[in-house]
Amino acid sequence: MRRTRGARHRVLGSHAFRGLRTTEHVFDVPLDHGNPEGEHLEVFAREYVSAAHPAESIDGLPWLVFLQGGPGGRGNRVTSLSGWMKEAAKDFRILMLDQRGTGLSTPADRLTLPLRGKPRQQAEYLAHFRADSIVLDCEAIRRALGTGPWTVYGQSYGGFCTLTYLSIAPQGLREALITGGLAPLDGPAERVYRATYARLAARNAQFFSWYPDDRRRVTEIVEHLRSVREHLPDGSRLTPERFQLVGNLLGGNTRVDSLHYLLEDAFTRSADGRRLTDAFLQQVHAIVTRAPNPLYAVLHESIYAQGEPTGWAAWRVLAEYPGFRADSEEPLLLGEMVCPWLFEQDPALVPLAETAALLAEKSDWGALYDAARLAENEVPVAAAVYRDDIYVDRSLSLETAHRIRGLNVWETADFHHDGIADDGEGIFARLLGLVRGG
C-alpha cells in the first residue's frame, strides 16, 4: 500500500454566481511521489458547492472528486449546476481537478516541455503523468484538505484512474463510481484497438445508414483533399487522414448527429473551383487540433502500457482494418486512435514528435493495476458499461468487472461514451444508489 504526504495548499479565491459557490485551490505535489523531497509541481482544483447549502454547513458536506476523461484534459468549467453535477451537488462538495500538466496546473505542452531539455528528458518527465501519479496527487490533496475517505467519480479515462485508485490507495475511497471507463487490467494495447476498430466500423455503418448521402460526402471530401491543398485556421494542411478524425463525433448520442451538420457545410464554389468552406474548416479544426490538450496525443497509448512498449499500437493494428485507410475506396472515419503521422501534421504536436516516439518505445512502464488487490476489493464500486461504446469496449469492460470483487455493473444500450452529457443526473443517481445498496 503506497502512502503520500499531504500537499502544501493555498486558496486563490472564492466566487458565488448562478446558484453555486466556487473556490479555487492550488496544491503543491511531488513530481515523483516516490521522491517527495525532489522536484514539485502545482495541481489546480476548483471546488463547486450548491448555493442551496447554507455557508455554515459546507464544511460538513462530504467531498466528491471528479476524474475527467482524457488523458490530458483539464477539469470542466461550469457556470451553473446541471447534469450529473446538479445531482451530485445535492449531497457533495465537488472537487474538479486540472490533472497534472493540464489547465491551470503546471503545464506540459510544446512551449513548456523544451524547458526540461532534450526529448529524452521530456519523456522521462512525462513518465510521471500517468494514472498512478494522478491518484497519488489525489491522496496528497485529500490529506491537505483534512478529509477522510472520499467519493470518486471517474468518466472514461477517469474510470481508468479510479481502477488505479482502487489498486494503490483504496484506503482513500469511501465509494467509487465509473462511467464508460473500465480499462483492461492487462496488456497489450493491441487488444484494445482490435476491439475498438471493430466497434467503430459498426458505428460508421450505423451512421451512414441514417444519412446515406453522407457516405458519398465523406468520400468526396477525402478525394478532394488528395488533390487540393486545403488549410485549417492555424495554417496547417487538412490531409485526408486528419479529416478522418472527425469520426470522434461518432462516440456519443449527443454528438453523432452534429457530424451530419458538419458534413453538409463542406463545399462551396469559388473562383478557384470547388473548395471547402471556411465554416467547415473552422469546425474541423476545433475537432482535430490537439493544441488545447497535447498530452492526449503524447500519452494516449501509455494509458494501456504495463511493462511492454506500445509501439504505436493503433497505427499497427489499423493494417488489419483496411477500411480505415485514407486511400481506401470508401474510407471510414476514425475515432480516438493516435497515429505517428499526427505529430507531423498538427502544429501543436510537431515539436513533441521525438518525445512521443520515445514514449512509444518505452519498455519499463510500471503496473497501473493490482489484480490481486482488486480481487479482494472492499470499496463499494458501481460502473456504467455502454454496450456500443466505440472507445471503451464492452467485452473488455465486462472482463475487468468480473475481476473486481463487489463491483456492481449497470450495462445499458441507451447511451454511448458521452452518456453523462445525455442524462447525467439519472446516471449519477443510479450509480450512487448501486454503491449504497439502493
Q: What can you tell me about this protein's structure?
A:
The chain has 438 residues and is an alpha/beta fold. The protein folds into 2 domains: 8-185 and 369-435, Rossmann fold (3-Layer(aba) Sandwich), CATH 3.40.50.1820; 189-361, no CATH class. Helices cover 36% and strands 17% of the residues. The chain has helices at 83-88, 119-126, 131-145, 157-168, 189-210, 212-227, 240-243, 256-264, 278-288, 294-299, 313-318, 342-345, 353-361, 371-375, 394-401, 419-435; strands at residues 8-17, 20-30, 40-50, 63-67, 93-98, 150-155, 173-179, 267-270, 273-276, 381-386, 407-412. α15 links the parallel β10 (381-386) and β11 (407-412). α2 (119-126) packs across α13 and α5 (189-210) packs across α6 (212-227). The longest helix has 22 residues, at 189-210. The radius of gyration is 22 Å and the shape is globular. The mean pLDDT is 96. It comes from Sinomonas terrae. GO terms for molecular function: hydrolase activity. Belongs to the peptidase S33 family. Residues 62-181 form the AB hydrolase-1 domain. Keywords: Hydrolase.
C-alpha Rg, in Å?
A: 22 Å
Q: Can you tell me the number of structural domains? A: 2
How does CATH name the architecture of the largest domain? Answer: 3-Layer(aba) Sandwich
Adjacency order of strands in the biggest sheet: 1-2-3-5-4-6-7-10-11
Question: Would you spell out the secondary-structure blueprint of this structure?
Answer:
Blueprint: E1 8-17, E2 20-30, E3 40-50, E4 63-67, H1 83-88, E5 93-98, H2 119-126, H3 131-145, E6 150-155, H4 157-168, E7 173-179, H5 189-210, H6 212-227, H7 240-243, H8 256-264, E8 267-270, E9 273-276, H9 278-288, H10 294-299, H11 313-318, H12 342-345, H13 353-361, H14 371-375, E10 381-386, H15 394-401, E11 407-412, H16 419-435
Parallel strand pairs: 4-5, 4-6, 6-7, 7-10, 10-11
Antiparallel strand pairs: 1-2, 2-3, 3-5, 8-9
